[in-house]
């Protein structure tokens, strides 16, 4: 840190000092400074903290006391631990203990703790005590404390303050951040220039740059957890739906899905008599579908079968009772012929109707396709077509 001399247009380095050599102590000085100027712990984002207690010892079955207790603008409790020239080895353990002690404080208890603090300050200065409730309403910028969220589960924060941090402390803080525990380290350094003393308070963990990164990572992790949860939810729904659907199919006249097991996938395949060309049921959030999927590993075979079925389109659709959607998909190996219905698929109350629709239309589709597929299958076997032959035949 440098001191600017505008008259001489020069800067001069300030002398770095230790708190001990200046006669400053943790409790009488550093703690007092931060209590009366909590904005020293606000970095570029200009965060506001409200000190609600000093040397708080309101823990059951222990005489331990934390240095400063604060609230942030979100109503989260902030445990502040000060260690002057050296962080020591136990500051993390102390802060975590205090956070655990504070975690079960109710909103009413927090308000009471703050009111005791205000009463004590008023007594020291011989003034009437302010209202904790009124101060909190103003600080949190809310209409009333009834709907205020104060000290919610897993929201407690840690702030460590020291002139020097041991490696075991910084490593532990960084490790804790991976588990969503909000912990900041502030480095405080006293400087001297003649008779003037200065204090620099700098957040070193997380750095302002890494804070944005960590926020982004937390958001990404939340997104991934949400996606995982949604995926598990869908898997459970699909498994349940197919179990009900297959049970209903087993009691119907449609036998193509006999001996098929339910899965977590959104499709369920059954043999059509042609290799790699199954009938398919599709269960989606917004639609259900019956169809024939031509997905043989040989694209030429799919095209061969599709073209010959398309040539019989009028008869197939007449037998099915509806117009089908024909998807040759020339840029892909697979081809599809399908019939679709829009539904609210994830509403379980709709499932019985959806399943009956599937049974009815898969029965019709299998009957409409049965003879054309038998004939095409014979053609494939009789000609024993190679991939090139099938392409030529499909073009005929």
UniProtKB/TrEMBL annotation:
Q: Which domain of life is it from?
A: Bacteria
Record's InterPro entries? DUF4268, tRNA_endonuc-like_dom_sf
Q: Where is the DUF4268 domain?
A: 237-371
GO MF, one term, reads:
nucleic acid binding
| Cross-referenced Pfam families | DUF4268
Q: Where are the transmembrane segments?
A: none
Name assigned to this protein = DUF4268 domain-containing protein
Species annotation: Pseudomonas lini
């Amino acid at each position: 840190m440098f001191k600017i001399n505008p008259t001489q247009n020069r800067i001069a380095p300030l002398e770095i000092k230790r708190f001990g050599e200046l006669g400053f102590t943790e409790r009488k000085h550093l703690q007092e400074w931060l209590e009366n100027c909590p904005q020293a712990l606000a970095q570029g984002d200009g965060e506001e903290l409200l000190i609600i207690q000093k040397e708080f010892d309101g823990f059951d079955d222990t005489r331990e006391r934390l240095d400063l207790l604060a609230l942030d603008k979100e109503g989260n409790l902030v445990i502040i631990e000060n260690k002057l020239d050296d962080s020591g080895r136990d500051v993390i353990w102390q802060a975590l203990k205090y956070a655990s002690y504070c975690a079960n404080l109710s909103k009413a208890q927090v308000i009471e703790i703050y009111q005791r603090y205000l009463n004590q300050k008023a007594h020291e200065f011989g003034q009437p005590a302010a209202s904790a409730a009124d101060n909190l309403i103003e600080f949190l910028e809310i209409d009333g404390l009834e709907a205020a969220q104060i000290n919610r589960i897993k929201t407690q924060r840690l702030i460590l303050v020291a002139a020097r941090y041991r490696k075991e402390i910084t490593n532990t803080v960084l490790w804790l951040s991976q588990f969503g525990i909000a912990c900041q380290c502030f480095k405080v350094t006293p400087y001297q220039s003649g008779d003037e003393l200065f204090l620099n308070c700098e957040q070193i963990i997380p750095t302002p740059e890494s804070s944005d990164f960590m926020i982004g990572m937390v958001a990404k992790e939340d997104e991934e957890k949400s996606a995982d949860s949604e995926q598990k939810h869908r898997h459970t729904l699909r498994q349940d739906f197919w179990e009900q659907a297959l049970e209903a199919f087993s009691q119907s006249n449609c036998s193509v899905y006999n001996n098929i097991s339910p899965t977590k996938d959104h499709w369920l395949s059954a043999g059509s008599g042609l290799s790699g060309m199954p009938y398919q049921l599709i269960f989606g959030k917004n639609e259900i579908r019956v169809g024939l999927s031509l997905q043989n590993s040989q694209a030429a075979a799919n095209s061969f079968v599709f073209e010959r079925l398309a040539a019989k389109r009028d008869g197939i659709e007449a037998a099915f009772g509806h117009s089908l959607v024909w998807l040759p998909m020339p840029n892909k190996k697979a081809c599809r012929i399908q019939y679709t219905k829009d539904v609210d698929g994830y509403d379980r109350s709709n499932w019985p109707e959806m399943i009956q629709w599937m049974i009815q239309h898969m029965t019709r589709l299998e009957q409409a396709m049965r003879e054309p597929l038998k004939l095409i299958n014979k053609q494939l076997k009789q000609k024993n077509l190679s991939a090139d032959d099938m392409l030529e035949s499909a073009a005929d």
